[in-house]
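Here we describe the complex-level prediction in full. Unlike the single-chain runs in Section 2.1, the four entities below were treated as one system.
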Amino acid sequence: MRYSGLRVIREALTGHRGWTPVWRDPAPQASYDYVIVGGGGHGLATAYYLAKEFRQARIAVLEKGYLGGGNVGRNTTIIRSNYLLDGNEPFYEFSMKLWEGMEQDFNYNAMVSQRGIINLFHTDAARDAATRRGNAMILHGADADILDREQVRAMYPFLNFDNARFPIKGALMQRRGGTARHDAVAWGYARGADLRGVDLIQNCEVTGMRIEAGRILGVETTRGFIGAKKVGVAVAGSSSRVMAHAGMRLPIESHVLQAFVSEGLKPLIDGVMTFGAGHFYVSQSDKGGLVFGGDIDGYNSYAQRGNLPVIEDVAEGGMALMPMIGRARLLRTWGGVMDMSMDGSPIIDKTHVEGLYFNGGWCYGGFKATPASGWCFAHLLATDRPHETGTAFRFDRFMRGLAIDEKGQGPTPNLH
Amino acid sequence: MIINHPLLGPRDAQEFVYLGDARLIGRPDGMDEGAAQAFHDHVFLRDNPAGEHRELWFHEQGDRSWLVVTRNTVTHEITKVELARDVARALGRSK
Amino acid sequence: MPEHSLKPLTPLGHESPETVTLGPVTIAEVVDIALASLAVRAGRGGDVATAARKAGIALPPPGHAAAGDPWSAFWMGPEMWMITAPCSTHEDIVAALKPIFGDAASLTEQTDAWARFRVTGRDLPRLFERLCGADLDRASGGQAIRTTIEHLGAFLLVREDGAIDVLSARSSAASLHHAIIAAAKSVF
Amino acid sequence: MSQSNRIPGGLIDRSGTLSFTFDGRSYQGHPGDTLASGLLANGVRLMGRSFKYHRPRGPISAGSDEPNALVELRTGARQEPNTRATVAELFDGLSAQSQNRWPSLAFDALAINDRLSPFFAAGFYYKTFMWPAAFWEKVYEPIIRRAAGLGSLSRLPDPDVYDKGFLHCDILVIGAGPSGLAAALTAGRSGARVILADEDFRMGGRLTAETQGVGGLSGADWTAQALAELSGLPNVRLMTRTTVVGAFDHGIYGAVERVSDHVPVPAEGKPRQILWRIYARRAILAAGATERMIAFEDNDRPGIMLAGAVRAYANRWGVAAGRRVAVFTNNDDGLRTAADLRAKGLEIAAVIDSRKGEEVTGSAGRLGLRSIKVRDGSGRTRTVECDALAVSGGWNPNLHLTSHHRGRPVWDEAIAAFVPGPGGPAGLLPAGAAAGHLTTHGALKTGAKAAAAALADLGHKAAAFDLPEAEDAPVSITPKWHVPGKGRAWVDPQNDVTVKDVKLAHQEGFRSVEHLKRYTTLGMATDQGKAGNVLGLAVMAEMTGQSIPETGTTIYRPPYTPVAMGALAGRSREKDFKPTRLTPSHKWAAEQGAVFVEVGMWLRAQWFPKPGETHWRQSVDREVLATRASAGICDVTTLGKIDIQGKDAGAFLNRVYANTFATLPVGKVRYGLMLREDGIVMDDGTTARLAEDEWVMTTTTANAVPVFRHLEFCRQCLWPDMDVQLISTTEAWAQFSVAGPNARRLLEKVVDQDISDAAFPYMACANITVCGGLRARLFRISFSGELAYEIAVPTRYGDAMIRALMKAGEEFDAVAYGTEALGVMRVEKGHVAGNELNGQSTALNMGLGKMVSKKKDAIGMVLSQREGMVAKDGLRLVGVKPVDPSQPLTAGSHFIAMGKPATAAHDDGWLTSVVYSPHLGHSIALGYLKDGSARMGERLRTVNLLKKTEVEVEIVSPHFIDPEGERLRA
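The structure predicted for the assembly as a whole is:
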């Protein structure tokens, strides 16, 4: 069914009787050409582009829980392509371009909203780094602006300019950055994939992989064996657990990242903002909640929940930057399990097992990467060649000394 | 979280800095054959289990001991805390 | 004291120590105590213990302090203590300790690395529960508790007379002092 | 308006009168009132508007679960949005405004949304507003955003202060109702350290709201008696106005105490609120239960309330929810409301008991309830005039904290509600209504039992608790979730989620509980699903034809109730966000009028303006030129200093530095390069050998802490038997750089020993004395490229030392210089610093590749040799100067080859550090350039696309000054 304003009006006048399920609930077939493990944003986007752009068929997505229940449903909804390094920036800019056409493409309003993102800086060295980054972005075809203190003040007069421990000196801005309605992104891809014949199979957990003579034959699941010519794993957060079925150790640790939302407030903050002198970033949702976050808790965890010190640390950052929020209330906290990689950058690559492909290690970058990640993974699955914007996301970069380390923290995942 | 320090008793985990997998104690010898592969695996690869995990914590706001904490990464339950120096020696590390 | 012309400043940047009284508590800057860290050299634990005993320096167990005259000490970490003595007599404290421990221990002057505030008065646990996680209701004289106050690492030395010495990094003495005073105003 | 709905009785203090305003109108209440009870007493039912349809709303509850009666409390910088009138304690002068309405609460223009509701069904926005694409940001979203939110912030800094605190106890009792009091008495009497915390300003829980007594006393009197005993126990701490908001790992609980919210303005120096971190060995969850609504058409009008709340207003606050009250219930508890109100002489218009086949099918009254429609068992409907309807759909245990670790509740058919399941936080024991024991007797009994169990765990002997007799009527409930009908029946009132929305979600396949919530926004309102989650789940269960447990469960996340951001931040805000570290010469520098700059936690002098200097460059240029011409003095105390001793110290340094150290003679200093294990440069600095087994390492200011941590790791974990001892001495020594041709002559005036070039050559170090005997250390090292020394004295003498040095320097016109001049001189000399030590660069990148010794195994050696890190055409550190000296360079600009377009394909690197060299009279820079060392003399463009500027530059050696190093050896 095609969605449109007209359709909404017609249904409104006829008691909404015409709406049909957004996706089917098929039983798994005995085998598929492609099995995508993971019904989160990346897995669903992969299936969508495999079917739509690469004209592949007989595709299934296996989800152990409900569609979109992973990090696509528990992030802070920010989209941006303000990366520094050659290995990353073309990919994230490709992703941004896909965001820009996504809703019309899959006929679902994911509320992609380019209200701009600013990264505040507070020292001369940080300004120099922002200048280097901004230029790198423009060299790669993205947009970037550098704002001085007064330009930032004009934009957000309520920030703490006059009584700050670390005064605001300016900001790097990407006007095309912004937010998207995270659940709707998953649902839009799911609906689009389903319409193109992809079987979306929920409550189907992969419990093993059938590998013979170095080739994958399919996956064991809680709903029985499912054969596949090719298996693509996109289960960020659980990557190590799933790939262990293929005997792999990954350059990845699982960490919990907490996120927060305040009670609904009348409009205050139009765009997205990150504090350069503390762990705090914030935007305001279309419903009025301040959506904010900070650093990961810092210890390996699969618990999808965090602890008090990080909640306090984030609030301290918020009160250092905008002491007006002292009387706003934190409404809800939640946690997502991140694939923290050894250089802070992702992996989209083949494995030592023929027919088994991996997509993971997204650290904080997963949500904004969703479209390009799906596209590039679909490209790799369909053609066995990496997409031109994803050539650096290889397993062997650590062996070869080609890490993509935006933060310069080295192989200490909890610092990325 | 609370880490039961072998010398100081229960301490708030906020006093500690986390490093990660206790296997990092097992640094290969840079002069050995095949050191490149050994260091790659040592530095970059992790088991990353969902369950019991032995990990290194540094008591930075405390007595500056490195500890090996055995903690469940799903429940966060801590079942064992040792001085990393003792663990290292038990693994045969010396000079 | 050496024959030189230089005048010292206190950690708070004054020529003489500062004392503030708020309600029932008094917070006093203490500057007349010299400190040196003592770390046992590999395999020399026995020698250090013997030397310390001979010199009348009690080396307390983890989490504790031992007061004496002239030498006091508190535990800092495995095989490491902070030895203290009056500045008036032991200004060059390492020079005084070297002969005692010889090459059995590593000695490092720490006098100026720390600021020390002595907090006296009643209901001190009510004050410190607004500053740090130390369980002072259950603490007793002779404990040396490592804790964190407003992001600053600190030692709390619980004295037999109930007073509490707070030791923290000298460079941030003003921030620590500000935190203690704000808490005292809030509690009392 | 007088207190028209005030009736006799209650626990308020009628001897006192409090005046307050709501939307500008004045009212009066009594001490003990909440804003809601005060307004209801004055006959005000309309207190808010719903989020989406702007429906008129009044309170449905008398507690922290209230979804409707949200107001903006106070004015000016203290304005506090979304405050629940049902828990806001009344004080004299309180002023509140309604919110999410325009122009007025009674007439709200956006109530038009209610008329258009068919178009605003769940998820409608996912299906439209897509064309044309650009319109989303430009047209649709701005309209949506303008309508969004409930209350508003003042945009002014919060003027109040917040404290944090830490508490320790054996047993934390959460909630001071019957079960909590029984638990606290049992634990307190047995000598355990107990904290009893309750979110209310009056302890007692439902005992304050019910008429049944306990042990022959009224609930209030029994509570008073229990509290009297507890407050007499030194091992018990009673905390009212304290909400335990979260259960975290290992017995850590977060609690918020509202210290000053019940007074107009906090007393001087006192906090508004305190965030307590409670370390509890055991905790008892005695948080009670929350009543739930039954969904029927138009069940959201002001005047339609939960039956238990109507009872509480009457019994605790002496307030009649209405003059003619009807009751709609599916269980016996609702009947109590009818009985209590009758006893108070109020008229009961009707009692509709769904168990008898009767149900309420609708209601009327635009801004407040006027009548309800009732259908009896035989299907006949009648209209009942009433101004209040008390609804009881049963009670949901407040099990929230048991699911904070994602433990799932289980369904209890007997009470038709979820009760705590397995997997709750270790050491947290639910009791009383929170555990599903909904009678007073059950609460007292299970409270005492939980305490006894906790005490046994902790090795305490439980004191006897002789159970007072109390009501123990069985819960008789026949679930009734919603009354079928054509109209809208509200499930989640604040977010306007109706039964129809749940049906639509089901129809469109959003059937898992999580999909239901996310698609309809059920449970996302400020009450976090307290009002609607279970009801919504039950309706979905009906649709799917499954049982409720089959359909799913609902778990809750911290915080239990919303928490002010200020409380979570405490004192760490604005200027006190982080501590400040001051250098030993700070006082002196401030006297000189120095401009200070934040360097990590440190404040350092950036430059020292002199009279007549109007631009910072004038000061910096002067400081640089004077230093190079004669002498300059700079406080370099902030660099990390680590004292390293032990027989194996040299061997240890050999392993942590890429270059060799063991061979360094006593009395000498060497520059060291430290790598991470992945081969990237971690830090650099000089290390001096003061004695055979005594070394002093210096680190960069930024890396002092991580380097120390790393060295301890190497010492304890990698080579545990090495004889090495470490301790930081950063704070112990005040260290000053004295640089310039006259540095030695200057120092000779303060140093007591011979420091002639022969006695104290370049890279020498020694323990010395100054000014007639003060212990000091002298290092002949140079960051500026000049003849230079670093002199260290005990920190307390730092102030005196800089004054002595400046005095000694007078005859040489010595200057003090700050971090800017320091930076200029290091760039002129080609030394790397923070901008080059970026965690992404190798020794080779920095032109220091030869320093990495392959003859020994040092941290990072092996991986530094990986192909990608030794690439011939990799980045190399170069010097850069503008071809036209008048043109300024910009750090962060990228190198583009002449004649090539500015695109990523032609990106050859970037300028890392840029300074103006007063010595050379033009801007100079360091940069990382692809294959840079092979491109000396080449001309390139440096482009700054952010400012659309570009400068033609020449690539030169990074050593702009004295490449042969003659000056520093002078």
